[in-house]
Design a protein that fits this description.
Number of strands: 18
Largest sheet: 7 strands, mixed
Radius of gyration: 21 Å
Structural class: alpha/beta
Number of helices: 14
Strand order of the largest sheet: 5-4-13-14-15-12-16
Shape: globular
Distance between the termini: 24 Å
Helix content: 25-40%
Length: about 400
């Protein structure tokens, strides 16, 4: 088999999932991650439908996910006095099974750590794609050459920037930001599925604050043009949230007072990645949010694990010939990734006018909302998932 050495950038979900499959098919895998270790906790992510479940079963991790899943969460929208206005069902927001991002990352990492090389606390600084391989320079490690390189490093992908071009050419700001603070109190140290729970949310025009639930102890969403802030400056980001939500009623003053107490805090734009010419270029390919991300679009984690399964399987089917495998991957995932291509969670969850908030609440209580939920279930399965039967005979890494 040709092209046997591969580098994956990113060790969240897409990266370890891709490492799992590539190792099974006989590739020598290195994963580089800029964080010093796996990121624990984090907001809940979810899987929906037969296709996602099939891939998880073939990875032999579905039982572990079930044991660490969070509860199905209904979000109750309330007025300033806390009176119920509408309910957004957990089946819509959480799919069939939810799990904290950190727990899922740990589960897949454990299946790959003994078989793949992980470089934590490092990052790629330069890529040179040649006919013979990709020469990679790192921030700390010595330069190396790999047969193939995969960007699984999120919406702000460094691999995409180095191989395809600047972020502004591929990432569209959708007019909103979101922030999460405080990891869910449910974590991997307490195994066992959770029951149905309730989070509460309150809207002001262009703003939404949610308290409780497995997504995070606090979640904020607000309309804004592109903001100029440093992505590693947490105090400045917290000030943005505090200033944006100043004067909002309900429990928001209490939430803002507690905001500084949480060690974990994350702010980012709600954005969409668009790759009109495909997710591959030469010997480089993008998997997960780096190629088809749509923040809070509802299918991101499922797209990531399906994408990892598809590109690894196609490479194995093509005996490592990336020109064949990458073309098939582009065709299959371009169609499938459209399920997340038209959604804007900010516009739906934080309407910019009082009338828009009332219309959203009416919609949540209507039969039309139930029909939209069913459409989401159908779209999540809209791919001809290959079996790659003759190639999955290797010992499953555990």
């Amino acid at each position: 088999m040709r092209n046997t050495t591969v580098l994956i950038s990113g060790a969240s979900i897409a990266g370890p999932a891709l490492a799992y499959w590539l190792h099974r098919y006989g590739f020598a895998v290195t994963v580089v991650e800029r964080a010093p270790a796996l990121r624990a906790g984090g907001q809940a992510v979810d899987f929906k439908g037969r296709t996602h479940r099939t891939v998880l079963e073939r990875m032999n991790i579905l039982d572990d996910i079930e044991q660490h899943r969070t509860g199905t969460t209904d979000t109750v929208f309330v007025d300033e006095r806390g009176a119920r206005l509408a309910v957004m069902s957990g089946e819509f927001t959480g799919g069939d099974v939810e799990i904290l991002r950190g727990d899922l990352s740990e589960i897949i990492y454990r299946r790959t750590a003994d078989h793949c090389e992980y470089l934590f606390g490092d990052s790629i600084t330069a890529l040179t794609d040649t006919a013979a391989g990709v020469h990679v320079e790192f921030e700390h490690a010595p330069a190396r050459t790999f047969d193939l390189v995969f960007g699984a490093d999120g919406i702000h992908s460094r691999v995409r920037r180095l191989a395809f071009g600047p972020e502004r050419d591929f990432v569209k700001h959708l007019g909103y930001y979101y922030a999460v603070a405080g990891a869910s109190p449910w974590n991997g140290s307490t195994a066992g599925p959770r029951e149905r729970v309730v989070a509460h949310g309150h809207n002001a025009p262009g703003r939404l604050a949610i308290s409780g639930g497995p997504k995070a102890q606090q979640m904020y969403m607000f309309a804004a043009p592109e903001l100029d802030y440093a992505r590693d400056d947490s105090p400045a980001q917290r000030r943005i949230v505090a200033e944006t939500f100043a004067g909002v009623g309900w429990e928001v003053p209490r939430m803002l007072a507690e905001l500084g107490e949480f060690d974990d805090f994350y702010l980012d734009s709600i954005s969409q990645v668009t790759m009109p010419d495909g997710y591959t270029k030469g010997r480089v390919a993008l998997v997960g949010d780096s190629g088809y991300g749509n923040t809070l679009g509802g299918f991101g984690t499922g797209l990531a694990v399906v994408g990892a399964y598809v590109i690894a399987g196609e490479l194995a089917s093509a005996d490592g010939d990336h020109t064949v495998a990458f073309a098939r991957y582009d065709a299959m995932m371009k169609r499938y990734s459209k399920i997340a291509g038209n959604s804007n969670a900010g516009r739906f969850l934080a309407p910019k006018t009082a009338r828009g908030i009332r219309m959203r609440n009416w919609f949540l209580e209507s039969r039309m909302f139930a029909l939209m939920t069913k459409y989401g279930d159908s779209a999540a399965n809209d791919i001809d998932l290959q079996d790659y039967p003759a190639l999955v005979g290797a010992t499953d890494p555990r």
